[in-house]
Structure formats: structure tokens, C-alpha cells
Amino acid sequence: MIIYKTEAEVELMKKAAMLVSETITEVAKILKPGITTLQIDSLCQQYVLDNKAIPSFKNYHGYPFAICASVNDVVVHGFPNNIPLKEGDIVTIDLGVILNGWHGDHAYTFILGEVSTEILQLVRVTKESLYKGIEKAIVNNRIGDISFAIQEHTEKKYGYGVVRELVGHGLGKNLHEDPQVPNYGKRGNGPKLRENIVLAIEPMINLGTKDVYTDKDGWTIRTKDGKPSVHFEHDVCVKKDRALILSDYSIIEAAEKANSNLNTNYYTN
Ligand code: MF3
Ligand code: CO
């Protein structure tokens, strides 16, 4: 059952999504080789608590941390750990919060220092695919239009692996609501989009095979071939002519560009 939001509820959800964006911006300011993902986890947890919100992933079906920190071949749900990040790593920071009862949930992939042009392209194309999906999140389209747009741009155009086992989702008073938002599918298929459906759209795109496996910890999802994977996620509200993006990459990107330890060479502007 899809739960439609009122205008007032969308406003509250924007505040939750923006707190996630602001927290990830704090990460963008301090990211550098040598820092551990456990340090990033405590920074995020503290920032969220200081802003009168609750990290939503912690204890969600037993998940033990505030963030997911997914490095290189980890697709999603990576546990923060005490291994220092190093030059050439790519790391996705995925964070969820509950603010005044409403969820924000989004993610951003950072590049530390020099990486191959192959990886730069994977990051660029995955981010582009998120926006291609968002363009389809308008009234009278269907979920499959979003899915198809993401798959076309990544799998069809670049031969990347589109993860099948994990999908985007509705978002509201719950972290995961209907409908599911796969990153693959057919145009014109699936539930019809109506005004004020809020979706977390989240392409998870692999450089190589689409196949993944779960680590012994029961959470960490990795690519089967060990090649890198990228994940970007935005919270969006379906509208008539153009989706309203509730989260905000512009503040993250500004901090990313200002941090000389981070690689933004894939940016076109
Ligand atoms: N962004 C992810 C999702 O929407 C993160 C969930 S991690 C979990 O599913 F620990 F909360 F499950
Ligand atoms: Co999500």
C-alpha cells in the first residue's frame, strides 16, 4: 500500500532529508586517507543526535551502526571498521535519520585521490543515472519508467552490472515503504505515480558483473568479481512536471570540491 504525503508532511520530510545531506557534508569536509569508517560513523551519529534526530539504521533488523560505509567492492550495507581509508579507495556513505517522526535516507560515493579513468566514469555515470531516474518521477509515469531510465544509462549504454537483489523504496514514517523502486525494468510497468509519493531512488551499479554475495557478517553486500561498485541515493517527492528532490547534493559537492583529498575530476562543471 502506497502512503501519500500531505504538503506539510513533505516539508517535514525535506527537513529530515536535509539533515542527512548536512551530515554527509560534514563527512566530505574531513574525509582523507588515514581516517577510519568507524570514526566517520561516530561523527555522523553525534551530528544527528546534536540535531535532535535519531540515526535510523542503528538496530534496524539488528544493523549495528549509524551509517553504512561501503568501500570499493562493497556494494551496500558495509560495516564501519577500523581499517584506515587509503588513496584510491571509493567509499559510499549511506545514512538514515528520523527527525520529528519522518525518515531521511540518502547516500553519496566519494573518491579518495587518484583512481583509474574506469572508476571515474563509473562514479559519473552512476550519479547521472540517479538524475535520469529522478526525471521520470512525475505524475502519471510508472515506477518502471524510473527503473528503465537507470538501467538504460548504466547497463545498456556502458555495460555495467545493475544489482538486482536490492532496490529503492518508498519513504515516510517508515524507512522502507511501498513501492519498491528497482534499478532495472520495463517502461510503463509497475505502480502509477501520483503527486506526493516520496521515493528513495538508489542505483547500485557495478563496474563488472551484476552478481553479488553477502559476507559472513550477514549484512555486507559485495560484488562477486571483486570489482568496485558505486551507490548514489536521493529522496524525491513525485510532482506534476518535475520531481522535488528533498535531499541536496550541492552542499556535499561544494565540500567535496574544497577538500583536496577528494577527487572530483569526473565533474563536467
Ligand atoms: N539506504 C539503505 C536502504 O534504503 C540502507 C539501509 S541499511 C539498514 O535500504 F541497516 F538500515 F538496513
Ligand atoms: Co534507501
Describe what this molecule looks like in 3D:
It contains five helices and 15 strands. It is globular. It has helices at 7-30, 37-50, 117-135, 143-158, 249-258, and strands at residues 54-55, 67-71, 74-76, 90-99, 102-111, 161-162, 168-170, 177-181, 198-201, 204-206, 212-214, 221-223, 229-231, 234-237, 244-245. With 269 residues, the protein is α+β, with helices and mostly antiparallel strands. A hairpin with a 2-residue loop joins strand 4 (90-99) and strand 5. It has a single domain (7-258), classed as Creatine Amidinohydrolase. The strands form four sheets. It has a five-stranded antiparallel β-sheet with strand order 8-7-9-14-15. Strands 1, 2, 4 and 5 form a four-stranded antiparallel β-sheet that branches.
Output the CATH topology.
Creatine Amidinohydrolase
Q: Total number of β-strand segments?
A: 15
Number of domains: 1
Cα separation of the termini:
41 Å
Structural classification:
alpha+beta
Ordered list of secondary-structure elements with their pairings:
Layout: H1 7-30, H2 37-50, E1 54-55, E2 67-71, E3 74-76, E4 90-99, E5 102-111, H3 117-135, H4 143-158, E6 161-162, E7 168-170, E8 177-181, E9 198-201, E10 204-206, E11 212-214, E12 221-223, E13 229-231, E14 234-237, E15 244-245, H5 249-258
Antiparallel strand pairs: 1-4, 2-4, 3-12, 4-5, 6-10, 7-8, 7-9, 9-14, 10-13, 11-12, 14-15
Tag the structure with descriptive keywords.
single chain, 269 residues, alpha+beta, Creatine Amidinohydrolase, five-stranded antiparallel beta sheet, four-stranded antiparallel beta sheet, 5 helices, globular, binds 2-amino-4-trifluoromethylsulfanyl-butyric acid, binds cobalt (II) ion
